[in-house]
Amino acid sequence: MIKNAVEFFRNLPKKQCIECGETIDEQHECYGNKCDKCMDPGKF
Questions:
Q1: How far apart are alpha carbons 31 and 34 in whole angstroms?
Q2: Which residues touch 39 (CB under 8 Å, ≥6 apart)?
Q3: What is the pLDDT of residues 12-35, one digit of tens each?
Q4: What are the residues whose beta carbons fall under 8 Å from the beta carbon of 44, sequence distance 6 or more?
Q5: Are 23 and 16 in contact (CB under 8 A)?
Q6: How far is the CA of 12 from the CAs of 4, 21, 42, 44, in angstroms?
Q7: What is the Cα 41 distance to its own chain's centre?
Q8: Who has greater pLDDT, 5 or 3?
Q9: Rounded to 5 degrees, what are φ and ψ at 16?
Q10: Contact, 34 vs 40, CB < 8 A?
Q11: I need a labelling partner for 13 at 20 to 30 A (CA). Which of 2, 26, 28, 41 fits?
Q12: Model's pTM, two decimal places?
């Protein structure tokens, strides 16, 4: 049983892009699984 929900979320690993493996700087409402570079490669 989870004793502290905040501690649970703090201990989750950082999210990684499914294409290149780079760590994603995500926002709380973001459910994407690709980094900005892989989402729009022509932009970078």
A1: 9
A2: 32
A3: 888 899 999 999 887 666 788 888
A4: 36, 37
A5: yes
A6: 13, 16, 31, 29
A7: 18
A8: 5
A9: -120, 145
A10: no
A11: 41
A12: 0.61
